[in-house]
Write a structure and sequence with these properties.
With 548 residues, the protein is of the alpha+beta class. The chain has five domains: 147 residues, no CATH class; 75 residues, no CATH class; 72 residues; 115 residues, no CATH class; 99 residues, no CATH class. 54% of the residues lie in helices and 12% in strands. The strands form three sheets. Strands 7-8-9-10-11 form a five-stranded mixed beta sheet. The chain has a four-stranded mixed beta sheet with strand order 1-2-4-3. β3 and β4 form a beta hairpin. α1 packs across α4. 26% of the residues are buried. About 4% of the residues have low confidence.
Length: 548
Amino acid sequence: MELVSQHVKGIMEECKIRARDAGLCFDDETLEYIVTNRDMIELSPKVMIPTLYDYWVHDVRVLSGKGMYELYPSNPYETVINTRPAISYYNDNNPDWLNVMIFYHVLGHIDFFQNNLFYKNTWDIDLTGQALSDKRLISRLRAEKGRWVDYAIEFSRGIDNIVSYHKEINQYVMPRKSRKLSRVDFYFDTFLQVIKKVSASEYLKEIERYNLTSKEEQPVDEFFTQVTSIYPEFDEMFRKAAEKSKKNDLDVMEYIMTHSVFLREEDNKWMKSIMQIVRNTSLYFQPQIRTKIMNEGWASFWHDYLFMNDDRINGHETDYAKVNAQVTAMPKVGLNPYALGLRLFDHIMDMEDKGRYSLEYFMLRDELERREFNGQLNTGFDRIFKVREDYCDFTFINQFVDQEFMNRHELFVAGKRLNQKRLTWEYFIKSKNAGDYRQMIIDTLYHPPVIDVVPSESVDGILFLKHTFEHKPLKTDFLENTMIGIEYLWGGPVKLETHEPAQKAKVDPDYSNLMTPGPAVPMTKQERLDWKKVVYTMEKRKLTRQEQ
């Protein structure tokens, strides 16, 4: 691995000038390295961070990658990581014209890393330097503690997907005072709607009364004086809710590090350092997992826009078209994040330029009028830059995948069934509805289970965890090993409350097990599963299951 030549660096600097002129914003300093495919295989398990701590799973993945490379050799164009300065890796056999395209793509990624608010927790961290410090600490501990270090890493990594990422981001985006539970929020969001379940008219009257109080510049305390005269129990219920919100502010790893009696013992305190390293590393990479479609789409949008307007493409139009098609082709079955993200940004810009995100346009019912509508706003670039700043994959897909986008690209939700006569799988169009397509994409997004500690139930040395059920059961294959790790770090029994299907129902929304050909079952008429509450208990490395 070595730095790119001065000639190639000059190409990159020229690309930076043109990218900034187009509106992209990023730091001046970047590092570009030339690597071989073998280097890529060795760096991939460490998320392309050379200084990341050593761990035996990394070695297994390297060996697996080398075996795969022997059978299926590949040649990735680039890899870029969100560090300060940003580091990118390139193959050593790229011609200059291809480097121009790749550099524009990389600069799109760097712009996204350094401006999207979901990355705000990473903006002031030197990850490579921090990772090197962590690696040295783990190496020193490994020399002292031996294999127990790897146990601590493995047990911590078993729960590093349920770290409180959104709480972490909230600390950077919102002032500390505004994150505290306020009486106003509790009164209007919880007390009136959830506890008292007042009618809509009563609720609106209270909002109006509060607004009048604010306009008259009277203290909020006067408003709540009247509230407590009507609801004497309000103050006590708010106090308990505020205490509960503080206790529930810790994720599972934080709670164990803070409250584990086992980790307080002098011989075990070093494990907290391991857990903190694993947690911090997970939090750093959480934004990239949650913005895959947007990030790749944004980079693809800019490499296409900038390179097509770059005179260095002259004579390489066909070569570029071939490479670009390989990267951004839109499959009819499956998902290509590069292609979907690119086309969504194109769609947003086109809709905004024509003023179609307006009430006037949405009120139109005539298809011909909708097709010819053009408000001539020409503010598409402003809109996509704002989207790039404020959205993650979920909000991006949920808001902008509409029926016009579906029709424009002739998209559909595909089903799969077995043709019994030919004994072959066949695909069919299940739905062309934007809502169904949107849900299909959302179901593929990263969404770890929401598991929290219940402090009120964690008594007598027991750690009680509760899975917030979202009609998706946990993967029971991983339960035993994960809970063994939690029990070890906690130093006592662990209980986990979750939900599982009450009975096996014949439901297969993807039709993958449908054995007879025929018309598709309407998506709205599928059977529903009944769910039951289940509590798993891990005690002395033995897992038991009890239905509630």
